[in-house]
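Lecture 7 notes: from sequence to structure.
We start with the chain below.
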Amino acid sequence: QAGQDAQSAITGQLHASQEEVARLTQATAQQERRGEELAQALARTQDDLNAAQSRAAALERERAALGDELAEHEKRSASESSARAKQVAEVEDRCARLEGKKRGIEQEVERLV
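Predicted structure tokens for the same chain:
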């Protein structure tokens, strides 16, 4: 009887161990699947990051190009403003000279009259 009880105990322990191995095998498989899912998610995230960095670089190039265009426009505008100011000064100078000639003529007319 003692031998049979020992064999039953060993058989019970063996069965429990087999169940534990099956449970651990299943848990390991689940962890491996989760690891694969996480690896895929990481790959997608990396792809998204790469795409965002490419877009940021493209936007930075566009911003730089617009900055260059704005600087060129401001330079051209300043040059045009300077040219207009010079023209206005020339016209004002001519007007002042003509006004002086007009006064001189008026004074000559008064003197002759």
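Points to note: Residues 19 and 95 are 110 Å apart (CA to CA). The chain is about 100% helix and 0% strand.
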